[in-house]
Design a protein that fits this description.
The protein is mainly alpha-helical. It has two domains: about 80 residues; about 40 residues, Ubiquitin Ligase Nedd4, Chain: W (Single Sheet). The protein is built from four helices and four strands, in the order H-H-E-E-H-E-E-H. A hairpin with a 6-residue loop joins strand 1 and strand 2. The structure holds zinc ion.
Length: about 140
């Protein structure tokens, strides 16, 4: 039951008592109270409807914002990822594009898929050398 339906039920009960709402003070009191409850019920239901509409509008705005964010941020993130994760070199033997990715870096070499030539990657291991140099001497 909605609040309005409960108030209508209450109003029906009060009318069943056949209260004298003109001469009886109690009857008048109950009549006025029920009138106030009816107004409150309508106000609350209006507010609930407004809140639902606002929620739907916020959902739409949130979706739109997500679209904008994906356009604004996606390209930058992709560019950074590409710079960090892999780069391309040209095979000196056949000119094929070689992708130097994480796996190639881990292996220390890259193999050309076109001509099968292997090339060792010259990697700087500055970090490891620094760690070794920090070993305390006696
Ligand atoms: Zn090649």
């Amino acid at each position: 039951m909605t609040i309005s339906e409960k108030v209508a039920y209450l109003k029906g009960l009060a009318e069943g008592l056949n209260l004298d709402t003109e001469k009886s003070k109690e009857g008048k009191l109950i009549s006025v109270m029920i009138g106030i409850l009816e107004e409150l019920a309508m106000s609350v239901e209006d507010l609930e409807e407004n809140a639902l509409n606002l929620g739907e509008e916020i959902d739409v705005l949130s979706d739109d914002l997500a679209d904008v964010e994906s356009v604004v941020y996606e390209e930058d993130e992709d560019d950074e990822d590409y710079d960090d994760d892999w780069f391309e070199v040209e095979c000196p033997t056949c000119g094929e594009t070689l992708v130097v990715d994480d796996q190639a870096l881990a292996d220390g070499e890259v193999e050309c898929p076109e001509c099968g030539s292997r090339y060792a990657l010259e990697l700087s291991d500055d970090d490891e050398e620094d760690e070794e140099s920090e070993t305390p001497e006696e």
